[in-house]
Amino acid sequence: MTAGSQPNQEQTKRCLHCGNVFADRDFNCSACGYTPTRSGDILCFAPELVAENADFDPATFAEMAELETRHFWFVNRARLLTDIFQRYFPKARTFLEVGCGTGLVLSSIQRGHPNLDVYGSDMYVEGLEIAAERLGNSATLYQMDVNSIPFHEAFDVVGAFDVLEHVEDDQQALENIFKAIRPGGGALLTVPQHMFLWSAWDEMNLHKRRYAPGELALKAARTGFEIVYTTSFTTLLLWAVMIKRVVEKRKTDISPEDEQKISPILNSIFSGVMALERGILRAGIRFPVGSSCCVVLRKPVEGLSKNA
User: What pTM value is reported for the model?
Assistant: First the structure.
């Protein structure tokens, strides 16, 4: 599939204008006639949101795409999520990542699961264009908002990795993710954790919150999900994160370059520590604290009426 190719006919869509549920390869609503706009090959479902987030510079995607491939946290988070995906969703055939950015995690999961049909979305076309280059013709990409997902029971798995903390109404976002998953399918989510780590970095990234332990699982259960697995991660480096955040609390401004700046030696050491942590998690041990939280969720086959 290419960035502009359309999903299979059996993937049911939900019209964002009238709520009609329908099946059409080109997203033409049979009830109201709504059709999304395009930016090149990418279908756009929420182009107006870019203007509403003018404080964010999409040009940083190019910098992030290069940084992500070598920074210890991004590399090891992608590997951890690929491990967890393979463990809990080995038979999945379709996967949508909401907020895929430049496609680093999406490409990692696709490589680990080569028979998977992968789909990605982001609010910013600039990030999706880089994702399209990274993924080649192996993914279908959309510009859209997590609170307005134009699919109904269409995917085996939906992922959102460090996305929900950017959303004012994260409960609504979880409900939209729930609706996009087929009965019996699942979700894989990560969020930053512990408000005591709040700093200028969170403000720079337009975070609305950091989550308390158990908070994301509680909100997901309230939505209708069954909790399959939950753990903290970046636990063995929590001390380093705490020191960095204490230093940042004294700053009134911070740049992406400052946040991600790290010496090659320290980057290598931290990468080794996170690799060790991944091994511990693979062995079945869960961490109660850590700078991030991961949850695996399942959508029940029955009892879906409240979210229909």
Answer: 0.91
